[in-house]
Design a protein that fits this description.
cytoplasm; peroxisome; Rossmann fold; 11 helices; six-stranded mixed sheet; elongated; 2 domains; Cu_polyphenol_OxRdtase; about 20% strand; transferase; endoplasmic reticulum
């Protein structure tokens, strides 16, 4: 397996001595992390090396990561000192994921630093300083197109909400570009890049500086009512608290938003095909009714971008379960891999549970601007697991209760919404 060698000249490595030892290596990809300190040193002139000499360590390492991704490399050997490792580990946590493996090779600092070098004058950066540097650098990066947010005209203005698309972020890997909003240990988009994408989304959508609170997906039907003990995993959240932005991810699975303008209660659910069969949508509604006194007739629902029946198939034995919800959910049941309409299945289940048909905004509602396009059919606008495979990006549906000045309550017996 090809290995990249990162030589840390910023934190004490001597370029002459380290360069001599690397001449014995079997042609690795060598990168010099030097900032402006050692770019003119001669120890590496005989090798084909790439010099990382940007003004900040964050920019140097971001350039390094981009090159690794272009070369499809993930194994890195780092030559540094003990204090260098302490600093670089902080950058690694922010700018890389578990896809990349780092092996730190340490020697006593005196054996890596010659009299002429004297080591680096840079002190070890605390975690907060590294985070600030990384965040400041990423905020300067240009976006790929502008941020686009889809909004449902069914959700009243007393709530802030939206469904993100894939444009307007800084993620550069093709299947994650550019507004990927979830950092997975199995993919190459690191937490700092995802947090910057979320910041840019928040500025456009209006919830910044509040953070997104994403469900902890388990492809089931567990609902967390905020204020109670948080479960280990859950696919839905419900609250009446202001100041918190609920969010549900999707990349073919449905992000579904729920709002009651009378009781000022909101919910967000992630519904894939498994969660649909387990009833996560109605479980969310039930939590709003039992936990906060919502009436079924007051709850409105918006179903976000998700895979359409045109592009989603299951094994026949799995599709049978959707036929039992409604025959129209499986238009070709005799096929070896029937197409399945998971959006229709959720509408049917919600209506059976008592949600009014006109209070569900999905792809069947033609008199409102669409918020439920097929993610697989529109690669320019949405991420899709079905289309892109395992290295897919994530968009989200998000919702919060706007904070307003207290007003006199309505007369007894009235149930006015916002």
């Amino acid at each position: 397996m090809a290995v990249a060698v990162l030589v840390d000249l910023i934190h004490g490595c001597c370029p002459e001595r380290t360069g001599t030892s690397l001449l014995e290596e079997p042609d690795p990809h060598v990168f010099l992390l030097c900032g402006k300190l050692h770019r003119n040193k001669s120890g590496f002139l005989s090798r084909n090396v790439q010099v990382l000499d940007s003004d900040s360590t964050a920019e140097c390492l971001f350039r390094f990561k981009r090159t690794l991704d272009r070369l499809d490399l993930s194994s890195v050997r780092v030559l540094t000192t003990a204090r260098g490792r302490e600093v670089l580990l902080r950058y690694q946590e922010l700018l890389f994921t578990a896809v990349y493996t780092f092996e730190y090779q340490l020697r006593p600092e005196h054996s890596l630093t010659c009299t002429g070098c004297g080591g680096s004058a840079h002190p070890v950066s605390p975690a907060a300083r590294v985070r600030e540097e990384v965040s400041g650098f990423l905020q300067q990066l240009p976006a790929v197109e502008g941020v686009t947010v889809l909004r449902s005209t069914l959700i009243p203005d007393c709530f802030g909400h939206g469904f993100s698309t894939r444009t307007g972020g800084i993620s550069y890997i093709q299947t994650l570009s550019s507004m990927n909003l979830f950092s997975s240990s199995r993919r190459r988009d690191p937490v700092a890049v995802v947090m910057e994408n979320r910041r840019r989304l928040g500025l456009t959508a209006g919830f910044h500086p509040r953070p997104l609170r994403l469900v902890k997906v388990n492809h089931a039907s567990d609902v967390w009512v905020l204020g109670k003990a948080e479960p280990e995993s859950y696919d839905s959240m419900v609250t009446n608290q202001t100041g918190v932005v609920l969010a549900a991810p999707g990349a073919d699975c449905m992000p579904i938003l729920f709002a009651d303008p009378v009781q000022k209660v909101i919910g967000a659910a992630h519904a894939g095909w498994k969660g649909t069969l387990m009833g996560v949508a109605m479980a969310t509604v039930d939590a709003m009714v039992t936990g906060f006194g919502c009436r079924l007739s007051d709850i409105v629902v918006a179903v976000g971008p998700s895979v359409g029946v045109c592009c989603f198939t299951l094994e026949r034995q799995q599709a049978v379960d959707f036929s039992s919800i409604h025959p129209d959910c499986v238009p070709d049941p005799e096929s070896d891999k029937p197409h399945v309409d998971i959006r229709l299945a959720n509408r049917v289940l919600l209506q059976k549970g008592g949600v009014l048909p006109e209070n569900i905004h999905d792809n069947t509602m033609s008199d409102r601007p669409s918020v439920t396009p097929c993610t697989s059919c529109h690669p320019e606008n949405f991420f899709s697991h079905v289309r892109d495979g395992l290295n897919f990006g994530t968009q989200v549906g998000f919702l919060w209760i706007k904070e307003t000045e207290p007003e006199p309550g309505p007369p007894a017996g009235r149930r006015d919404g916002c």
